[in-house]
Each structure stands twice: as C-alpha cells, then as structure tokens.
C-alpha cells in the first residue's frame, strides 16, 4: 500500500563468522577442543554443516579465529613509561583469560596465520617494553620470560589434582597414606605448615612470582640503558 513502510526482518539463523566463532568457543570451553566439531557447531547454530564453510575455510581457520578472539579479551598494555605496571596488568589479564578458555593455553603462540587481535597484542607488548626503555634484545628476553611464566603457571594450575574448594588435608593424607610415616618429611612439612593454612590458594603464588620476574627484568634493563646513553 502507498505510504506504508515495510520493515525487513533478519532471519534468526543468519550466520556470521563472529557467531560461528562464539559458538565454537562455547563448545571448547565446555568440553575442550575435541568437543568443537563442525557437526556439533552446525547443530548448535541450527544450520547445515556446509553453511559453516562460508564463514570458516576449515578447522585450522576456525581455531585461528578462536585464538584471535581470546587475544582480543586480554587487556593491552599501555605504551607509557611505567612498563612494570603495564606488564603486570597484562600478565594478570592473560592469566584470567586462560582460566576461562583452558583449551587455548597450548594454542596461543602456535598460529601461522594470526589474526588482527593476535598481532595487535604482540605489537602492544613489544611497544610497551620499548617505551619503558628496553632495547629490542632485552624486550625479546623480557617477552619470552614473561610468557613462559604466564603460560607455564596457567598449565600447572589447570592440571593440579585439587582446587581451592576441596579439603587439602584430606587429599594430602590420601596421597601419603601408602608410604611409611616420615619417608617424605619435607613434603609433609610443606603441606602441614603451608598448604593447609586457612585461605591457602595456589593461584596466589602467581603474583608473587610475577613480581620477582619484573624486579629481575628491571635490574637487567638498567645496564642496557646505561650502554645506550651518549658518552660525554
């Protein structure tokens, strides 16, 4: 009818690369990467499996995209002179993101075709270190050391046989029960004198170790800065 405006209704199942990636990440978060299959994704999204291939070329492209989304969730470090604060905030943010997406720990640095968020993150970390006075060689050392610690800690925590909600005393007793009393005195002392203290949480060790690394990098950075100063 003349003068009547017809509204266009978007189909409920209109696909996009973003929707495919978000559904894939939800599957991986729930059941690991093995649970993320094209058939399962198609069922989740209510489409035929072949419809997915208009948005992701193959499983590798899907994983590239998922990893890029994860990088996009990590806080970017600032480019200001306070590099220690920037690296500390970035490390804590990356740790927290990896805790949400446990499947991603072994994939973050493995992509041959990284996306924009991936590249932007690496560029920002290097830029923050350089703005803080690191030459390129020292920036490379710092980046390697920090990421080795962050990913290593995340992997260790993920594989611990306990979490903060269980009775550590009960677990420790069951672990040591098959062996003679006193056979492992240092381990027993660690459990009783430290791990069994009220409020103990292995996750709290992360920031302690991180600060030691940052302090060490500060000391290692200073000789490089002195060598870079012009000679009078």
What shape does the CA trace take? Answer: flat
Rg result: 24 Å
Low-confidence stretches: 4-10
Structural class: mainly alpha
Terminal Cα span: 86 Å
Count helical runs: 10
Q: How many strands?
A: 0
The helix/strand series, from N terminus to C terminus, equals: HHHHHHHHHH
Largest sheet: none
Mean pLDDT across residues: 89
Tell me the helix content.
Answer: 55-70%
**Percent in strands:** under 5%
Structure description:
- The protein has helices spanning 17-31, 38-45, 49-52, 59-73, 83-100, 116-131, 136-159, 168-176, 185-195, 205-228.
- The protein is flat.
- It is built from ten helices and no strands.
- 20% of the residues are buried.
- The termini are far apart.
- With 232 residues, the chain is mostly helical.
List the helices and strands and how they pair.
Layout lengths: L16 H15 L6 H8 L3 H4 L6 H15 L9 H18 L15 H16 L4 H24 L8 H9 L8 H11 L9 H24 L4
